[in-house]
Amino acid sequence: MSLEKKVAIILAAGQGKRMNSKVQKQYMQLCGKPVLFYSLSAFQESTIDEIILVVGKGEIAYCQSEIVEKYSFNKVVKIVEGGTERYHSVYHGIKAIQNADYVYIHDGARPFISNEILDRVTVGVREYNACVVGMPVKDTIKIVDENGFVIETPSRDLVWQVQTPQVFAFALIKEAYEKLMEESIQGITDDAMVVEAILSYPIKLIEGDYTNFKITTPEDIYMAEQYLKEL
Ligand SMILES: Nc1ccn([C@@H]2O[C@H](COP(=O)(O)OP(=O)(O)OP(=O)(O)O)[C@@H](O)[C@H]2O)c(=O)n1
Ligand SMILES: C[C@](O)(CO)[C@H](O)COP(=O)(O)O
């Protein structure tokens, strides 16, 4: 048995505005089960010890009975309410952790996180304390000005698209988020940004998988179902 304690924060408190659907995307069905089922299953079946599930306002009871109990996710030790922005939800999750060595922050809207990625990022965080999963971009990237004119074409070799989980030593991510709450930093879209901006701590990129995509817009649901049917 491992002596280190690994805790996951699974985020499911978003509104899913870009999905434009009546049902929030984390509860939409993929081959008969909610998107969130797949993300939680991956962590339930991994070496992660505990899961903190972060859900929307008024959704704790629903998630407890319709997701956690229904599918026997016994690693879920707490369900907490999220906040307005993703980073607020992460902070609520961090506050719910009493002790941990490593914290795995994962979008509930990324259902296809695999054990291989979790193993790779675990090896990484033991060495680097701050790791994000990502993949090299496939398209050429342009930096544009506010009028849509190209300013620069960065070398594609150095451009990665970042996924989750983003994994940190607990003390590091707790300190970064506590300081973030005392400051006003705009445009925070991932956890690594918090650690970069607040603590200037180096972040190591770990190879993920293109299948670890985020369900964001309606065509992602179609692609996710196709992917599941091929498995
Ligand atoms: N206040 C928020 C916003 C987002 N999330 C979660 O963070 C993940 C990534 O966010 P995103 O894909 O942007 O989800 P939404 O915010 O729901 O989508 P949108 O931006 O289209 O409204 C999702 O699992 C989402 O549930 C969250 O827990 N709390
Ligand atoms: C954290 C993230 O999934 C990494 O790609 C992404 O930044 C979340 O952004 P969103 O705008 O909240 O979807």
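qc> The pocket of cytidine-5'-triphosphate (ligand 1) is lined by residues 11-18, 26, 54, 82-86, 89, 107-109, 214, 216 (CB under 6 Å).
qc> done
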